[in-house]
Automatic annotation (TrEMBL):
Signal peptide: none annotated. It holds the Pfam family Polyketide_cyc2. It comes from Saltatorellus ferox. This is Polyketide cyclase / dehydrase and lipid transport. SUPFAM superfamilies: Bet v1-like (SSF55961). It comes from the Bacteria. Transmembrane segments: none annotated.
Length: 178
């Protein structure tokens, strides 16, 4: 009798975990924004050079002293990339896939993870002449094992604060150059 109850309980728990996955989205998307007191062109030039990202994102040597960067390609061009290795932050690569006035898109690859896409969208801020409304977007899919879809539920909460700090860092860096 105890074995039957154990089997039934195991099946109930398994179905309780597996069935909801079928109804979860296979993709995620999030964004954060800020207003920077500088023209779009100045913000664009900063974002378009991966060598500056260590100065404004939270993914830097303060977060992981073992972090090592490798840059390839020319800044502000499609194909410009930044690869990194780090004990705590892991290994990965960002590559610009599209650059146009007011928008820079990139692919992000982390070892062992599905690729994701990001973009920085920059446009003149309404009501703040000479300022830029910057929006950092991030999206991806949770392919493969269905349990990965659970991560999509928490992606905004996991990464959103890093984007907020990164945008604050970008704002501080760009505005300090005035």
């Amino acid at each position: 009798m105890n074995k039957i109850i154990g089997v039934i309980l195991t099946l109930v728990i398994a179905f309780g975990f597996l069935v909801p996955q079928l109804f979860l989205s296979k993709s995620f998307a999030m964004d954060r924004g800020t207003v920077i007191a500088a023209p779009v062109e100045v913000v664009h030039a900063t974002v378009a050079d991966f060598a500056t990202w260590k100065d404004w994102t939270v993914w830097n040597k303060e977060a992981d002293p073992t972090l090592q960067y490798t840059y390839t390609g020319e800044p502000n061009t499609v194909g410009h990339s930044m690869a990194w290795t780090a004990e705590k932050l892991g290994n990965g690569k960002l590559t610009f896939t599209s650059i146009e006035p007011g928008r820079i898109a990139y692919d992000m690859e982390f070892d062992g993870q599905d690729p994701a896409q990001g973009a920085m969208v920059m446009e003149p801020a309404i009501g703040a002449e000479g300022s830029t409304a910057a929006r950092w977007e991030f999206s991806g899919t949770m392919e493969g094992m269905p349990y990965k879809r659970y991560f999509g539920l928490f992606m905004d909460k996991m990464i959103g604060p890093d984007f907020e700090k990164g945008l604050a860092g970008l704002k501080a860096l760009v505005e300090s150059k005035k």
